[in-house]
Specification:
binds 3-isopropylmalic acid; branched-chain amino acid biosynthesis; binds magnesium ion; EC 1.1.1.85; ten-stranded mixed β-sheet; Isopropylmalate Dehydrogenase; alpha/beta; 345 residues
């Protein structure tokens, strides 16, 4: 059956890296006979321009009907003073589609090891997956701002914790069989509940080891010994912070994809980097995060493991051939990098 893919190109470099991602998708689809159709909708700043809202009603409708969603990037300084910001569209989309599980693989590429701000012996062997709860916690609790006081409520139910921790265990089962659950159990009630539920879930997965770590010390370990992580699972706010920390380990934002899953609806795939308005339209953006997001989509939404691996290996080979965009220290344009990746498929 034809798979319906919704594309949200968004702002800044979004449209150009989306083009690169779709070229790679088309090339790999021909090889593996993957049958798909594309629909594009405005989102983020482009949504504000087109319909006055970062998540226009038609975009949300299309998202609900899609089999998977590819998002490139949103945000631009021109909306800094706007009544609704592009980012609010992203939060609304996560909530509307119930995208509770944000998955970010962090893996060092041999050809890019030298870019890491860490010493070579610390970055060697880094290969973990960060699983962030994405639709609960303080992000979606009550926010009360008064003249002389403010309050944000951090809410978690056992069910919200259970489903995200299960997701982490399922991922760990296919990898190194270790889950590190990160909380602030020495202070927060939500974290005490989190730890208890994590223990219960661990009983369902006897082949996977569970360890707990407090978020402050986890932030240190991520710098001093990141290779010891296999799968990390944590709540929304800690995950927001730790995922940015994890993204600097590689020394570039340009090569990391992500996925956000719901229980049974469409998943969303996007680069972890932003819309880089300063280099938009110049054809020099690094398309790899977008291209690897396409690979994640093929594997996670459509079970096209071979297609995903073809893309991942082609990216690896391209990097080791020294075809590098400027952010990676080279001179390749986006088009050169994309066509080399397609040639290497
Ligand atoms: C992210 C971003 C978002 C978040 C912002 C844009 C609301 O930082 O995806 O990590 O905080 O979740
Ligand atoms: Mg963030």
């Amino acid at each position: 059956m034809t798979k319906k893919i919704l594309t949200l190109a968004g702002d800044g470099i979004g449209p150009e890296i989306m083009t690169a991602g779709l070229e790679v998708l088309q090339a790999v689809a021909e090889k593996i006979s993957f049958d798909y159709s594309l629909e594009a909708q405005p989102f983020g700043g482009a949504g504000i321009d087109a319909a006055g809202h970062p998540l226009p009603a038609a975009t949300l409708e299309a998202a609900k009907k899609a089999d998977a969603i590819l998002l490139a990037a949103i945000g631009s300084p021109q909306y800094d003073q706007a009544p609704v910001r592009p980012e609010q569209g992203l939060l609304a989309l996560r909530k509307e589609l119930n995208l509770f599980a944000n998955i970010r693989p962090v893996k060092v590429f041999d050809a890019l090891k030298h870019l890491s701000p860490l010493k070579p012996e610390r970055i060697a062997g880094v290969d973990f997956v960060l699983v962030r709860e994405l639709t609960g916690g303080i992000y979606f609790g009550q926010h009360i701002l008064q003249e002389d006081a403010a309050r944000d409520i951090n809410d978690y139910s056992t069910e919200e914790i259970r489903r995200i921790v299960r997701k982490a265990f399922e991922i760990a089962q296919e990898r190194g069989k270790k889950v590190t659950s990160i909380d602030k159990q020495n202070v927060l009630a939500t974290s005490k509940l989190w730890r208890k539920v994590a223990e219960e879930v661990a009983d369902e997965f006897p082949d996977v080891t569970l360890e707990h770590q407090l978020v402050d010390s986890a932030a240190m370990v991520m710098i001093t010994n990141p290779a010891r992580f296999d799968v990390i699972v944590t709540e929304n706010l800690f995950g927001d912070i730790l995922s940015d920390e994890s993204s600097v380990l590689l020394g570039t934002l340009g090569v990391m994809p992500s996925a956000s899953h719901s229980e049974d609806g469409p998943s969303l795939y996007e680069p972890i980097h932003g819309s880089a308005p300063d280099i938009a339209g110049q054809g020099i953006a690094n398309p790899i995060s977008m291209i690897l997001s396409v690979a994640m989509m093929l594997r996670d939404s459509f079970g096209e493991t071979i297609g995903a691996e073809l893309i991942e290996r082609a990216v690896d080979k391209t990097l080791s051939q020294g075809i590098l965009t400027r952010d990676l220290g080279g001179h390749a344009t986006m088009a050169e990098m994309t066509s080399t990746i397609i040639g290497n498929l």
